[in-house]
Amino acid sequence: MPATVHLKDIAASVGSELGVSRWFTVDQTMIDRFADATEDHQFIHTDPERAAAETPFGGTIAHGFLTLSLLSAMNYDCIPRIVEQTMGINYGFDKVRFITPVKSGARVRGRFVLDEARFRGAGMLTVRYNVTVEIEDERKPALTAEWTTIIQFDPKDRPEDV
Q1: How far is it, in rounded angstroms, from Cα 138 to Cα 31?
Q2: Rg (CA), the chain
Q3: What is the mean predicted confidence (pLDDT) over 31-57?
Q4: Rounded to whole angstroms, what are the CA distances from 66 to 33, 80, 110, 116?
Q5: Model pLDDT for residues 73-117, shown as the tens digit of each residue
Q6: Which residues are in the MaoC-like domain (predicted)?
Q7: Would you call 10 exposed, middle or buried from its count of C-beta atoms within 10 A (0-12, 13-18, 19+)?
Q8: The whole model's pTM is what?
Q9: What is the pLDDT of residue 162?
Q10: Could you tell me if residue 8 is inside a domain?
Q11: Average pLDDT of the residues in 40-69
Q12: What Cα–Cα distance (Å) separates residue 54 from each residue in 41, 60, 63, 87?
């Protein structure tokens, strides 16, 4: 279970690694379910025999967007919870790069560095993470990105000095 942190202490963590998630196995069942959900059934994801014969990957690979979507679970797994938070909202991604394909059966984990924390309005905090999804036993990561979220909180909980 991730630790907790108070709003008043967030600024001190800027530039620090906040957490590394547990390993998540990206198996063929997960890939197939993602293909069904997104209607992206390209053979490099869903046909192990053809992917082994016709690609340099030796089998199927996960959709890049599947790997990206795992960031939510990875975040919940390791990022400290803000005590005063009432809701979190995805704001978006910048500089998403899919660097190394994730082969079916591989394990991945997320690494989160707090790049920025900026108070907006009376009850919002914008948080930007530099995220890396690592693949077990691979030199290069699956992806890197800048992920911005908005943390909402009751305005009465806003630290006085920000």
Answers
A1: 20
A2: 18
A3: 97
A4: 10, 24, 13, 26
A5: 999 999 999 999 999 999 999 999 999 999 999 999 999 999 999
A6: 12-131
A7: buried
A8: 0.93
A9: 77
A10: yes
A11: 97
A12: 16, 10, 17, 46
Query: For 24-37, what is each residue's pLDDT tens digit?
Result: 999 999 999 999 99
Whether residue 10 has pLDDT greater than 70: yes
Distance separating alpha carbons of residues 73 and 19, to the nearest angstrom: 13
By residue range, what is the domain housing residue 61?
4-157
Residue 157 Ramachandran class (φ > 0 left, ψ -120 to 50 alpha, else beta): alpha
The pair phi, psi for residue 146, each rounded to 5°, is: -105, 120
**How many angstroms separate the Cα of 153 from the Cα of each of 49, 73, 87, 148?**
50, 22, 7, 16
Backbone angles phi, psi at 93, to 5 degrees: -125, 145
Distance from C-alpha of 75 to C-alpha of 93, rounded to nearest angstrom: 14
Tell me whether residue 162 is in a domain: no
Structure tokens of 19? 């957490």
> How many structural domains comprise the chain?
1
